[in-house]
Amino acid sequence: MTKIKDVVRALEQYAPPAYQEAYDNALLQVGDPEATVNRVLVTLDCTEEVVEEAIERGCNLIVAHHPVIFKALKSLTGRTPVERTLLKALKHQIAIFACHTNLDHVHNGVNAKLCEKLGIENTRILAPKSNLLTKLEFFVPVEDTEKVLEAVHAAGAGQIGEYTDCSFRITGTGRFTPSSQANPHIGQTGKTEETIENRIEVIFPSFKQNQVMRALLKAHPYEEVAHFLIELENENQEVGAGMIGELETALTAEEFAQHLKKQLNLITFKHTAWPDKLIKKVAVCGGAGSFLLSKAKAAGADVFVTADLKYHEFFEANSKMALVDVGHYESEVYTKELFYDILTKTFSNFAVDLSATNTNPVRHS
């Protein structure tokens, strides 16, 4: 039987909580992690209506993109929509899990899904994040190198983009003198020893440091393992905000507008003047993306598709790049499909439902 904590673990492996913004609250917000999963409802927002839908469908876990608990709660009396949503979920023993900006930031997350919907190919992160990687250097006897490397790779070290088991080694001579209290793997106490060792270098996401170090120390034959941990300033090309890529075929402004409406099921959208050229290179950011305007310009985007743009921000467009505001809900609603794909590929012993509730608070007349 699958427990709620198993579903949480699978989603957090896909979008690590370490990648969420400091203001965010992506986690299991309601429910017992040890409870067995009966059926899961995936949604963009968790509202009273969504909880009611979960009750009707027999779902005891709701997976949402936007956290229902975002600001601190000082009471739970049903005075606000958030409090009423939580009370209804608690009454019917329905757990609520949110996967928010951490899912925005991974390379196969919210923006990748938006690019998929729009047919944008050859994608890359628009604004990669830095200071998220750590380099580990350690020394190991030549004959034990493969065993130790296998252990640290299994713990998450050595993956760079589409390449796994990445490492660098230099062979040299290690020299040491064990004390009378030591229990050396090589040599004798009180006697200086020299042995051929490999110096190994591997890179890993910083949040995996504890598990990588546990694996190293467990697999390494030495009583004392000489090692260095170095925080890297490198950009992590797989983690960051927004995405940019190219349409398979360049489109005229009118063709692109119709393409947007069709692919995102839009009634209308706001935009600046279209550039006087065919549209090929497109940047996107699901949700509020005005902070990426300069990045989209610098990347040479013909159009930047996002949401929640303010009036004065539209002035920041230029003749080379158009700004498009499709709406917050419209830019992220297909995250439901992303959750569905992750869960159905990972688990086969419970049903996953796409919520049919339209949680968009904005109406167009």
Automatic annotation (TrEMBL):
It holds the Pfam family DUF34_NIF3. InterPro entries: DUF34/NIF3 (IPR002678), DUF34/NIF3_bac (IPR017221), DUF34/NIF3_sf (IPR036069), N-reg_PII/ATP_PRibTrfase_C (IPR015867). The keyword Metal-binding applies. Keywords: Metal-binding. It comes from the Bacteria. Belongs to the GTP cyclohydrolase I type 2/NIF3 family. This is GTP cyclohydrolase 1 type 2 homolog.
